[in-house]
Queue: 2 jobs
Job 1
Amino acid sequence: MLSRTATTKRSSSLKQVPALIRELPPLPEVATRVLQVMRDPRSRRPDVARLIIMDPALAGRTLAMANSAYYGLARRITSVDEAIGYIGFEQTKQLIYAASLQQMMTAPLSGYLLERGMLWRHSLGVAMGAHWVAERLRIYPVHNAYMGGLFHDIGKLALNRVVQEQARAQQRPLDEQTRSSLVQFERELTGYDHAEIGAMIAQSWQLPEDLVAAVRFHHDPGQQQPASSLVAAVHIANTVCLNAGVGVANQDYPFIFAEEAIAILQRLGWKEEDQEQLLKHIEQEIKQAEEALLRR
C-alpha cells in the first residue's frame, strides 16, 4: 500500500503528464513548412529545396544522405535540389522527419534505463524494418510504415520523468521483470502508457491519422478496429528489434508477436522465415542510415 506521501507525489506527477506533452518541442518550423509544401501535389522540387536550405543542418543531412553508401552514386552531389532528385520526394520526407526527431530522441532516458542514443537507434531500426515489411508485402503508402516506426516510441520522451519519479516514490524500480510488461508497468505507475501518450503527441503535431494509429497500437494491434496492415508492420518490426536487442538494454525474456498482426501479414504473403530476413535487413541498413544522418 502506498503511503500518504507517495500517493500525494503520484497525484502531482499524474497532473504533469498533459503539461509534459505540451513541453515537448514541436517539429522544427522549416521541417513543418517543407512537409506542408510536399503534401501539395502542385509543389515542385525547387520549392522544396529552397525551404530546406533555410535550415543548414537539414540541408547538410539531405546532402549526406544522397552521398551515402546507401545510394551508391557514382559522383558527389553538391546541391539540395539535385539531392532531392536522386532521393525522391518520399525519401526526402522520411529524412526530414528523421532529422527532426534525431536530437530529441538521442538523449538518455533514465526512467526507461536507456542510455544515450538507444531510443534513437531502436526507433531507426523499427522504421527501417517496417518499411521493409511494407515494401515486401505491398502495404501502401510504403513510406508511412517507415514514419510509423520512427515515431512509435515518442511517448517515452514525455513519460520518462514521471515514470522515474513514480518508480522511486513507489519503490518499484524498472527491472528485468517489469520491462517484460512495460505497458502495464507504465499504466500502474502513471495511469498512462507510452503508446497512448505518443498518439497524443502525434495528434498535436498534426500527423496523419494512420500514423497516429501506428503509434497508439504498436504493442497491441488487436485493439485497433479494424486492425490495419500498417500497424501490423510496425508491430512486427518493433518486436523483432526488441528481441534482437536493437537499441534496448540486454534482456533474457522474449517479446511475443501479436497473433492479430501475424494473421494480417500472412494474408498478404508473410512467411515465418521472413522474420530472419527482416532482422538481417535491419542490421545491414541501420548502420548506413545512422552514418548518413549523423554526417553534416
Job 2
Amino acid sequence: MRMLKTRMLGIWNRRSLIGNLVQAELRSGVARRKFGLFWWLLDPILLLGIYWVLVVVVLDVRRNVDGPYPLFLFSGLLFWKWFSTSIIRGGSSLVGRANLIKSISVTKVAFPISIVVASCIPWMLGTLILSGLSMAFGRPILSLNMVQSLPLLFVSFVTLASGAIIMSVATVYFRDLAGLTPHVLRAGYYLSPGLWSLELLSERLPDVARTVYLWLNPVALLMSCWRRITFSGAAIRLEDWGIVCAQCLILFVSSLLVFDRYDQDVARHL
C-alpha cells in the first residue's frame, strides 16, 4: 500500500511534465497533418460510412438499436478510437523516447499517460459533436443522467492509462508487440459492441457467459456506458458501475505494480 501511495504521489508531482508532453504531442499531431486534430475525427467518420454500408445496406443485420444507426456507430467508434490510440501509441511511448529516457533522469510513467491525455482531448470534442447530433435527432440526452459523464470520464481515463502503462513496459521487452497490437485491436473491435448493441448478448448468451465476457473485455462495458449517456440519454445500471469500477481498480493497481517492478530495468533494455 505504501508503494502504491508513493507511485501515485510521484505521478501527481510530475503533472507539469505530463502537461508539457501532452502539449508536444498535440502540436506534433497538428504539424504533421493538414487537418490537425480534425483528422482524429475524420478517421471514425470514414469508418462510420464503411460500416453503415456493410451492416445496413449490404448485410441488413442491424438489430436492437433504438435510434439512428449512424449515430449508434459513431458513439462506439469514438470511444474505440480513444482506446486504440492510447494502447497503440502509449504502448510505443517508451521505445519511441528511448534516447531521452537513457540520457536524463525522467519519470517514465509520464510518457504513456501523456498519450492518453492527448488523445482524450479530440475524443471529448467528438463526444460534444455526437451529443449535439443526438439532440438534433431528438434523442433525450439532456437529463440528469448527463452528470454520470464526469465519474465515467475519470474511470475511463484511469482504465486506459493503466492499460497504456502496462503495454509500454511490455513493448520494451517484446518489440513485436508494436506491430502486433494494431492487428489484435482491429479484431477486438468486432468482438466489442461497436456494430451491435450489448443487449444482444443478453438474448444469445446465458448470464454466466455474458458476465465472463464483460470481465474479459473491459472496453465493451465502457463503450456501452458512454453510448447510454451520449446516444440513449439513459442511466448507467448500478451493476455496470460496479464492474467498470472494479476493472478500473484492478488495472490501476496492476499497472503500478508492473512499473514498480520494471522501472529501474526499463532503461537498460531500451
